[in-house]
Specification:
Number of domains: 4
CATH class of the largest domain: Alpha Beta
Distance between the termini: 85 Å
CATH architecture of the largest domain: 2-Layer Sandwich
Number of helices: 21
Structural class: alpha+beta
Radius of gyration: 34 Å
Oligomer: single chain
Largest sheet: 8 strands, mixed
Number of strands: 25
Length: 636
């Protein structure tokens, strides 16, 4: 018995719908693109309940002939493809002819349309079946209403997100469609509230409609042509960056796409100017011969394939680099010299950069300095269980090599006024209090005598055949950091009201990201709430972060929008907690007295403390008696 079934239309239409109709935003995209292909100059988009209950798209385009209304809902019915060769020279946004059939198969649809040659006609379908059709008065253009999405496919309906999230996806999509079609007036409302309204007066006006006036002063015009390629639009200045990629809009032949080749080329053009968590702003349209780009490689037509990807990358990179250079070097009547681009620098951990030279470098250069450089150890992130072994092995290699490279003649400069062959007197360190802690991990280090300190920075401790150096700043920094983290875990957090509330303006994707994480932000001690359309107001911050730069924090927070991992509250403010701990910890060079040193070491030993500061620097380095003996050639 045959195992191959020929699917009925009502089944394969629903399968095709899965490729085209993933969510309400997919329907909006297909319908608006049909309006654009019909030559519409005014398009009105209305959604209700995130598009789940109703989507309406109306336009003033050329309309659909009465005799074409029913065929328009047949599978693979299209007016844009006639022969196979047409597939390789596509100039329209829609072309496959499966969209209307797929949409109608999983919803209830009504279309009313009028051409310049005919009266208005309408057709209603439910689950792909025609319910009623006939003449109906209508202005020039097409009106289409899609209701009750997935009403007949409950298994797919349950995969829809909450209405607000579906609306956010539609809002993000419509913003791209407006930017990709700046000569079309597009109005978008959600639950009868106007979200966007563009006038069709050009790209700059479209950017204003989406992002507001603050963006306009930070734009660099982009217009470059080289043979068969052309790129136009706007890019952001080198002092104007965004926290995620949602502010990047790329069109290929006026079709909005998610293209990595153009995206990477633009990002690399800004590489010399960008800081971490920063992304350039751009709204650009790349014009490529239709026969050199394949738009038929993705079900929703969001990706394209170039015939010569390397040539495209090079062209875009050169165009953007030239535009940036031109903007940086242009002179005005008020400004006669080029200002270097300024950058906001994050506060570095409190360690002096000693510029450790790799041991494979020229030994003659090494011999110019007899200083022992420990920056390699102090700045290398080392796992706790590897700390002591790595400190021993690496330090001993550095020290032995330093001594091996030193001249052996009696002309060597020393820090004592005596010949090198004479014994050097080293005073016995003052014995201080014995610190003990019954902890199997830290017992050896903490059951030690504090025998002194060096440079008012390092506590020196001796235990058996081991010598320990503790960085007082990094150790105190770790203690403060752990204290802040514990407060959060114990939900023992207080808020510090802001003297002047801070308002953050966002786009639709960022709005949804903030809404998804609002409770977590509140659990950290932020008082934050929605404040009008696409904006939030922050009225208080965690008291453990009194010096928090609210603007920078939320820029970094929104940079997580590009990640798929779930945010955790501790991770979210880890850098800020570390920065606060750094600022409030004792500093290298602070002259701590005996009692303060004892308390610091006791606090380190009173819990399961990670022997690294929050920035990853170890704050304990161990020297063994055996290694020290090797330094002085007491043993070989």
């Amino acid at each position: 018995m045959s195992k191959i079934n020929i699917l009925k239309p009502e089944i394969f239409n629903k399968i095709a719908a899965g490729e085209v109709v993933e969510k309400p935003a997919s329907i909006v995209k297909e319908l608006v693109e049909n309006s654009i292909d019909a030559g519409a100059t005014k398009i009105n988009i209305q959604v209700f309940d995130g598009g789940i209950s109703k989507i309406i798209v109306s336009d003033n385009g050329s309309g659909i002939l009465p005799e074409d209304l029913r065929p328009a809902f047949l599978p693979h019915a299209t007016s844009k493809i006639l022969t196979e060769n047409d597939l390789y020279n596509i100039a329209t946004l829609g072309f496959r002819g499966e969209a209307l059939a797929s949409i109608a198969s999983v919803s209830q649809v009504e279309v009313i349309s009028k051409t310049s040659e005919t009266n208005g006609h309408s057709i209603k379908l439910s689950g792909g079946e025609v319910v009623v059709e006939g003449e109906k008065g209508s202005p020039m253009g097409t009106y289409i209403c899609v209701e009750n999405l997935f009403f007949n496919t409950p298994a797919r309906q349950k995969f829809l997100k909450k209405p607000k999230k579906e609306e956010s996806d539609i809002t993000s999509l419509v913003s791209k469609l407006i930017l990709a079609n700046p000569r079309k007036a597009i109005k978008y409302t959600a639950d009868n509230k106007v979200i966007y309204s563009s006038t069709g007066q050009g790209l700059k006006e479209a950017i204003f409609a989406i992002y507001g006036s603050s963006v306009l002063d930070n734009l660099i015009p982009l217009e470059y042509e080289n043979g068969k390629y052309k790129i136009t639009g706007y890019i952001g200045k080198t002092s104007y960056f965004k926290p995620n990629r949602t502010y990047q809009t790329i069109m290929i032949n006026n079709r909005w796409v998610a293209d990595s080749i153009v995206n990477v080329a633009i990002s690399q053009s800004y590489e010399s100017y960008m800081m971490k968590h920063c992304f350039p702003f751009c709204v650009v349209n790349l014009t490529v011969p239709n026969d050199e780009v394949d738009v038929n490689v993705h079900p929703s037509k969001l990706e394209v394939r170039f015939q010569d990807a390397k040539a495209i990358f090079g062209f875009v990179y050169h165009a953007v680099t030239e535009a940036i250079y031109s903007d940086l070097t242009k002179k005005t009547t008020e400004e006669t010299e080029v200002k270097e681009p300024t950058f906001e620098l994050k506060r570095a951990p409190e360690t002096q950069n000693l510029n450790y030279q790799n041991k494979q470098e020229n030994t003659s250069e090494q011999s110019k300095s007899n200083e022992l450089n420990l920056d390699f150890i102090l700045n290398s992130p080392v796992e706790t269980n590897e700390l002591h072994d790595s400190a021993d092995s690496v330090l001993s290699e550095i020290i032995i090599e330093k001594f091996a490279s030193m001249p052996t003649s009696t002309n060597v400069e020393t820090n004592v006024d005596t010949d090198i062959s004479e014994p050097i007197y080293v005073p016995k360190p003052i014995q201080q209090q014995l610190i003990t802690k019954e902890n199997e991990n830290n017992n050896d280090m903490l059951s030690s005598q504090i025998i002194g300190k060096a440079f008012n920075t390092f506590v020196i401790m001796e235990s058996g055949d081991n010598l320990y150096f503790i960085d007082q700043h990094a150790a105190h920094e770790r203690l403060l950091f752990d204290k802040y983290v514990k407060q959060i875990k114990d939900k023992n957090i207080s808020c510090q009201p802001l003297l002047i509330p801070y308002t953050i303006n966002v786009n639709s994707a960022e709005e949804q990201f903030l809404l998804d994480n609002l409770e977590m932000l509140k659990s950290l001690g932020f008082e934050i709430y929605e404040f009008g359309n696409l904006s939030f107001r922050i009225t208080a911050i965690p008291s453990s972060l009194p010096n928090l730069n609210v603007e920078n924090f939320f820029k970094n927070f929104l940079s997580n929008l590009n990640n798929y991992k779930q945010l955790k509250n501790i991770d979210l403010i880890r850098d800020e907690l570390a920065e606060t701990a750094c600022k409030h910890a004792v500093k290298g060079g602070d002259d701590l007295d005996k009692e303060e040193l004892i308390k610091l070491v006791k606090d380190v030993g009173n819990g399961d403390v990670t022997l690294q500061c929050p920035h990853g620097r170890p704050f304990v380095v161990k020297f063994t008696r055996r290694e020290i003996d090797k330094w002085f050639r007491r043993i070989v």
